[in-house]
Write a structure and sequence with these properties.
Elements: H1 6-12, E1 19-23, H2 41-51, E2 55-58, H3 64-67, E3 76-80, E4 82-84, E5 97-99, H4 107-111, E6 116-123, H5 128-148, E7 152-161, E8 168-170, H6 174-186, E9 191-194, H7 203-210, E10 214-217, H8 224-236, E11 241-244, H9 246-249, H10 254-267, H11 271-279
Parallel strand pairs: 1-2, 1-11, 2-3, 3-6, 6-7, 7-9, 9-10, 10-11
Antiparallel strand pairs: 4-5, 7-8
Helix pairs in contact: 2-10, 6-7, 8-10, 8-11, 10-11
Length: 280
């Protein structure tokens, strides 16, 4: 039987079955360092639309900047549905992750013609209630996604205490990532946005646990050569694409990065070929 949500998924994934989603939804998390490169959102969106990634990940309060652009060639909208405080530079006494629209959390995405919605599945040390909150969010979203034939992207995120600066940072332990990815799939994920594992050669285990398209989550700013090398390594393990933010929107010329990453994702470029394209 044909699943109606695939109509929207076809807008995310090209004929290659892969996708580059540029995340610029960072402002909702109330972390000042995330806003470097995102202060002028109209300019950011215009630049990204011209760069032509497959999708742009945004929040409700900014999504009209993308959807008000005329024409049908613009990237698809991936809309975030939740907000929390796990990215703050301090460790809070009370951690939270809640739905931004509680009454009907998927309807705003439908009204803005999103191709997909995304929500966190968080696993932080000593924070079982935060994990429970995100499971509850996903359970609520899953029902509304079924109602509207809206694909659900789940972002399983394992974090550990950041001893250097406070707060939390990504934990690349595959023994934690793989079970959380499996939990995301069991909860009904249509797409999974998963963290990279510490060792790229282990990433096929993430793909196997997901049994649905997996997009590799990016992270903090790194040298371009490192970004390409890591992306190539995870794509070779079977990832269906990338969700990168700061390594694109904080770059002086986002279009050059997007062009190179698209070539890796859809045309099978190696990291060296991507670097040569980027350097032209």
């Amino acid at each position: 039987m044909y699943h109606a949500h695939k109509v929207r998924m076809h807008r995310l994934f090209r004929a290659t079955g892969k996708c580059l989603d540029v995340a610029i939804d960072h402002g909702v998390f109330n972390e000042g360092s995330f806003l470097d490169g995102l202060k002028d959102m109209p300019a950011v969106v215009t630049a990204l639309v011209e760069a032509r990634p497959d999708a742009i990940q945004m929040n409700y309060g900014q999504a009209e900047l993308l959807q008000n652009i005329l024409g049908k060639e613009k990237p698809a909208l991936v809309m975030r549905t939740d907000v929390g405080n796990p990215y703050s530079a301090i460790t809070h006494q009370a951690m939270f992750n809640i739905l931004a629209c509680e009454e009907d959390p998927v309807l705003p995405a439908v009204r803005l013609d999103a191709a997909c919605v995304v929500a966190n599945l968080l696993l932080l040390p000593g924070e079982p209630d935060l994990h429970r909150q995100t499971i509850r969010n996903i359970a609520r979203l899953r029902g509304f996604c079924d109602r509207y034939a809206m694909p659900l992207m789940i972002e399983p995120l394992v974090m550990r205490v950041n001893d250097a600066r406070g707060g939390y940072q990504v934990d690349g332990d595959k023994n934690l990532i793989v079970p959380l990815v499996r939990q995301a799939r069991e909860l009904g994920a249509d797409i999974i946005k998963a963290d990279p594992t510490d060792h790229p050669e282990d990433y096929h285990e993430v793909i196997e646990a997901a049994r649905c398209p997996v997009l590799v989550r990016g992270g903090g700013r790194e040298p371009v050569e490192t970004v390409f090398a890591k992306a190539h390594a995870y794509l070779r393990q079977g990832a269906h694409g990338l969700v990168y933010g700061r390594n694109i929107y904080q770059h002086p010329n986002p279009a050059r990065i997007v062009q190179a990453l698209l070539a890796m994702i859809h045309d099978g470029f190696t990291d060296q070929q991507a670097w040569e394209l980027y350097s032209q």
